[in-house]
Amino acid sequence: MSKKNKTDKRGFVYSTDPNFNFEEEDEYTETLSPSQQKLKIKLDSKRRAGKVVTLIEGFTGKEKDLEELGKKLKAFCGTGGSAKNGEIIIQGDQREKVMQWLKKNGYIQLKKA
Predict the structure, then answer these.
(1) Comparing C-alpha atoms, which of 102, 104, 103, 80 is closest to residue 90?
(2) Which long-range contacts (CB under 8 A, 24 or more apart) does 57-64 make?
(3) In the prediction, which pLDDT does 25 show?
(4) What number of H helices and E strands is found in the chain?
(5) Calpha distance 32→99 (Å, rounded)
(6) Which residues contact 85 (CB under 8 A, 6 or more apart)?
(7) What is the pLDDT of residues 2-38, one digit of tens each?
(8) Which of 35, 63, 104, 106 matches a 20 to 30 Å C-alpha distance to 112?
(9) Would you say 54 and 82 are in contact if contact means Cβ atoms under 8 Å apart?
(10) What digits encode the pLDDT tens for the residues 35-77?
């Protein structure tokens, strides 16, 4: 049996080259300061059975910091949601509350889409 290749975050699953190795991505990227983050806030309902969510994209940094920011936003809005794959999902149309909280906490490069 040959050694199986592991999948990576870019979607590669299999290679016919026996010497192929995935390039390791730098998982330890430093989290940018709030004033340097370029976040997009938008309303989304795709693939959610018609339910509306507020989507925050563009976070640059560690997954742990993303989850922490998501937790703070969910607590402020009083709703559920999740934080994964570089984006934060907040249930409902919470764009104004999210924008208000982010500005108050030093995130100045915001774009509302």
Answers:
(1) 80
(2) 57/86, 57/87, 58/86, 59/86, 59/87, 59/88, 60/29, 60/31, 60/32, 60/36, 61/29, 61/30, 61/31, 61/32, 61/37, 62/28, 62/29, 62/30, 62/31
(3) 56
(4) 2, 5
(5) 18
(6) none
(7) 555 555 566 666 778 788 776 665 555 788 899 999 9
(8) 63
(9) no
(10) 999 999 999 988 888 899 999 999 999 999 999 999 999 999 9
> ∠ CA(20), CA(21), CA(24), 5° rounding?
155
Identity at 17, one-letter amino acid code = D
Q: What is the pLDDT of residue 16?
A: 80
Give the separation between CA 65 and CA 31, rounded to whole angstroms: 7
- Pair of tokens at residue 66: 């993303």
Q: Is 46 helix (H, G, I), strand (E, B) or coil?
A: coil
Task: Give residue 23's identity as a one-letter amino acid code.
Answer: E
- Give the chain's end-to-end CA distance (angstroms, integer): 51
**Largest Cα–Cα distance of the chain, in whole Å?**
57
